[in-house]
Amino acid sequence: MMNALSRMVAEYVRLHRPRLESILQRMNECRNIADALKLAVTYEDPDTGSLHSHQRRIGRKKLSRCETALREALVDLPSATGFDQVYARVNHVISGMPGIGPLTVYDISLRIGAFLKLYPQTVYLHTGALEGARKFGFVPVNGQLQKSVLTRELQQLEPYEIENFFCIYKRGAASSCGPVKRMCSA
């Protein structure tokens, strides 16, 4: 018999993983770093053309400034050897910009990392994901969790999926397990 967490993870894999994987796959299809930066910052749904829900909150004008700053500052980004370097560089360039918070820094870093095929090795926690991790009883160290401290149910997910899982399930289980109002994904 499956416990509640196993059901939530199975539900996540069935309902939410495909959307996140689609976003990361689109990043992999970019032809160069300039295209990848543009898509990472102003990610639009390929079906509707609307900005991703996280970016809609910021607006196109601020995102354009963000893209310009990243383009100018991250010429050497393709030389990064790990996700932590990508995240640190993106954070350094845009974290002080008006309207840009930790969620935006992470989303952009994850997308650029996908283009470079550099993924997080730890679970990065911010905003809703941090709230979710705490609700599940995990205590982050420096805003991150090592995958090894998580339950076996969560360990079957990649660190970026665990971040997404915590955000989605921060208020409890979704569809088959109970109501959840909003969905987060990179």
Biggest sheet record: 2 strands, antiparallel
Strand content range = under 5%
Secondary-structure-derived class: mainly alpha
Uncertain stretches: 174-186
- The average pLDDT score comes to 86
Instruction: State the share of residues found in helices, binned by percent.
Output: 40-55%
Task: Fill in the keyword field for this structure.
186 residues, two-stranded antiparallel sheet, 10 helices, globular, disordered C terminus
Task: Describe this protein's structure.
With 186 residues, the chain is mainly α. 54% of the residues lie in helices and 2% in strands. It has a two-stranded antiparallel ribbon with strand order 1-2. The radius of gyration is 16 Å and the shape is globular. Residues 174-186 have low confidence and may be disordered.
Secondary-structure map with pairings?
Elements: H1 4-15, H2 17-28, H3 33-41, H4 53-56, H5 60-73, H6 83-94, H7 102-116, E1 123-124, H8 127-135, E2 144-145, H9 152-155, H10 159-168
Antiparallel strand pairs: 1-2
Summarize the structure.
The protein has 186 residues and is mainly alpha-helical.
